[in-house]
């Protein structure tokens, strides 16, 4: 699949990217170069190329993004590409923002524009993916992708100020851990993100649930389970994660 954008003199085709589900998290704000776009759940992808951010050659610009969450806040990986040479591709060198956070606050990052960036309108892709880093041309399970237009101007252009927020960092992904592992008697199940009502199921190799409960129980007694490999499935009411458990 391709997505088309019309520039002043030619038409450029870009690869498609989207999520299959944006029910639990979505992009709810993007600000850059005098452009602000606050939205809700757009179904995994939205074409906002009618909205234009203005950036000057050789400039550094503050960008603001934020995530919306239905309930639980998950670790979201952010990436932004700008096609500076207007060749219809998002090269690795054109990735201007990357990082991860589980915050719903405004997140800030700096967008640097090369001094030799081609003047005129071009495409910007903003991608937010649940729990893992993304590529520019990817269809993934959860999150959202939005496309915008950036107008590259001469370096004499004065840029609009952007309001501040929390710096976008690199936060640990949402994972489930079981320890000690292997174990003979007891196991504890922990999540790297807060989930007060998360439940667990321990499943044997035949697919039968042999134990279940709330992960906040503390030590879970597995002494009566047979020796072998098990799958631990944890569900926070919205999403599921799995890990393996070896019973000695």
Question: Any chance you could write out the topology, listing elements then pairs?
Answer:
Layout: E1 2-6, E2 11-15, E3 18-21, E4 25-32, E5 35-38, E6 45-56, E7 60-69, E8 76-82, E9 95-101, E10 107-112, E11 120-130, E12 139-153, E13 166-167, E14 176-179, E15 186-191, E16 199-203, E17 209-214, E18 220-221, E19 228-235, E20 240-247
Parallel strand pairs: 3-12, 6-12, 10-13
Antiparallel strand pairs: 1-2, 4-5, 4-7, 7-10, 8-9, 8-11, 11-12, 14-15, 15-18, 16-17, 16-19, 19-20
Descriptive notes:
- By secondary structure, the chain is mostly beta strands.
- The protein has 2 domains: about 1-165, Immunoglobulin-like, CATH 2.60.40; about 175-245, Immunoglobulins (Immunoglobulin-like, Sandwich).
- About 0% of the residues lie in helices and about 55% in strands.
- The protein has no helices and 20 strands.
- Strands 3, 6, 8, 9, 11 and 12 form a 6-stranded mixed beta sheet that branches.
- Strand 19 (about 230-235) and strand 20 (about 240-245) form a beta hairpin.
- Mean pLDDT is about 90; it is low at about 5-10.
- It holds the Pfam family GEVED.
- Keywords: Signal.
């Amino acid at each position: 699949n391709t997505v088309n954008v019309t520039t002043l003199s030619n038409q450029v085709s870009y690869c498609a990217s989207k999520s299959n589900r944006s029910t639990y998290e979505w992009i709810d704000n993007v600000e850059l170069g005098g452009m602000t776009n606050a939205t809700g759940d757009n179904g995994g992808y939205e074409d906002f190329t009618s909205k234009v951010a203005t950036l000057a050659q050789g400039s550094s610009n503050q960008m603001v993004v934020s995530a919306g969450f239905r309930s639980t806040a998950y670790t979201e990986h952010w990436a932004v590409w700008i096609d500076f040479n207007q060749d219809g591709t998002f090269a690795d060198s054109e990735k201007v923002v990357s990082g991860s956070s589980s915050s719903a606050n405004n997140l800030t990052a700096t967008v640097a524009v090369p001094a030799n960036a081609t003047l005129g309108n071009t495409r910007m892709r903003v991608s937010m993916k649940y729990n893992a880093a993304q590529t520019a041309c990817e269809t993934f399970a959860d999150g959202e992708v939005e496309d915008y237009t950036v107008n590259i101007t001469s370096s004499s252009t004065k840029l609009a100020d952007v309001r501040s927020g929390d710096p976008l960092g690199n936060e640990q992904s949402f994972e489930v851990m079981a320890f000690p592992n292997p174990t003979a008697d007891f196991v504890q199940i922990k999540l790297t993100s807060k989930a007060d009502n998360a439940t667990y199921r321990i499943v044997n190799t035949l697919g039968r649930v042999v134990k279940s409960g709330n992960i906040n129980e503390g030590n879970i007694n597995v002494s009566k389970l047979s020796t072998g490999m098990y799958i631990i499935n944890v569900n926070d009411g919205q999403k599921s994660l799995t890990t393996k458990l070896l019973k000695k």
